[in-house]
Amino acid sequence: MADNTRKKQSFLKGTLILSIAAIIVKIIGAVFKIPLMNILGGDGMGYFSTAYDLYMPVYVLSTAGLPVAIARVVAEYSSKRRYRDVKKTLKVANYTFFVTGLVGFCIMFFGAKLFVKTIDNPGAYLAVLAMSPTVFFVCLTSAYRGYYQGLQNMYPTAISQVVESLFKLLLGLALSLWIYNAGMSGFDANGLVFGKPAADFEAARLIALQYASAGAILSVAIGSFFSAFSAWLYHKIKGDQITKEELALPQESVSGKTILKKTVRIAIPIALGSMVGQITGLIDLWSVLNRLGHAVETNYSAIAAMYGDAIPLGKSLESIPNYLNGCYKGMAVTLYNLIPTFTVAMGVSALPTVTVAWETKNLESLKQNVEAVLRVTLLFALPAGLGMAALSNPILTLLYGGRPDEVVIATPLLALLGIAVIFASACSPINSMLQAVGRADLPVKIMVVCATLKLVINYVLVGIPEINIRGAAIGTLICYILIMTVSLWFLFRITKVRPNFKTTFFRPALSALGCAIAAYGAFTLIHRVFSSNISTVLAIGVAAVVYVICLVLFRAITEDDIRMMPKGEKLAVLYRKLPGIK
Fold first, then answer.
1. 260-275 pLDDT, tens per residue?
2. What DSSP string runs through 362-396?
3. Dihedral sign, CA of 320, 325, 330, 336?
């Protein structure tokens, strides 16, 4: 009975659980980051983003990297009914990730000063220090997340993600605002900001923002602690539902040392492969500020002419790179990161089902799952990416109306990243399937090539004053087009799957195109009567309705997809009666 319970979470049900969690997390994240941008501005978000860019790879490792390695091992042992090895895998993972997390914390904490000096952003030092405990806690969480994912139970992952976001929200805004106001109050009283002398208001503001951004980052570390605690508590209360009868079954068993070697052998390429979704952020972290500094020194007048009044008067040349990067990261990249979060959930949910199909040589199930993963991924990514590109300025104005200067800078960046998000969103699920069929090495090899390409593009384009920060967005777009194309080619070659092009790619793309055209057209018409913000909300609503109609009309969702949803059989009967193109 317990084993049957574990198997109830199909790919789509697991995706639904993680997607609901991702929606909650992203709503919380928006409630956190949007007002945070309005508190910190481009300068403060530059400091925050430097530390957060360090955290995001760790976060991806904790949600789609290290847990995937554990899930891959657990799913394999579970499919072979080797339940003693399943339970032993969790013990090995706990010990291993405890040590890994401790080492990671020490490297980040003691290397913070060298790091911010290397990337030429010393103002981010306090934020990086505040982020360092996160490494330890997310590693502890990873063991439990991977264990339950391998058993096709996505609830612990979903719960721990929501808990982490809630604590980040509750503490982050309060800490950053309180710290900033306290720093500026000190300057008004005696010319000191937390004991540091400030020559004028602008200098005082920049010092206060360094501490305020560190306060916001500290909330992330605290959230990661409670995330780890919630995962541990779930395990203590709920257990894993592996019965004594299952443990007593005749089965092979290996030592903990053997499991460790197997896990590490799988974990290293999977962990590196999971970084594909973060390589552009990492490359930007190491190259953008330096190259922006070069562009400013070479021809600042070209940059000033491009942005006009969007760069505030009185801002020193030394602070321009951090300001532009803060607009890019704090606005454009924040919105860009929304969709890949959902598709990471699809990859996490797909891995155990694809693994079982591959290990049991069930080619029909393998084809069905590969097609479903690609189709559902595109159904999310295509309308979101095209819509983001079509309404880049209205969306930014709606969310960051209090920062009109930063919106001017971020608008063309979001338009480029809207197209890039389509390809970036597909990478994680494709890589998860490559990992599931035993080719975790391929995403790493592809990543190395594309990371090199991205670095070259950044170095050349960002350093050109007439292009500057837009070069980073262009590099991201080119990078992910290449990653997705090559990864998909390898997936089809290895699995021998030949997907139905019409249902998997063409129909979702056609529906998304209709959605984007509707969004742009609706905004243009409605804006003649209503304000920009009202027009944006109404245009998004119109686009959503048009998209649903297109999905039904073009049959972009299959009946098999619907049957795997809750109440799927009844919904499939209703869907069959609706008019549409066969």
1. 888 777 777 766 666 6
2. -HHHHHHHHHHHHHHHHHHHHHHHHHHHHTHHHHH
3. positive
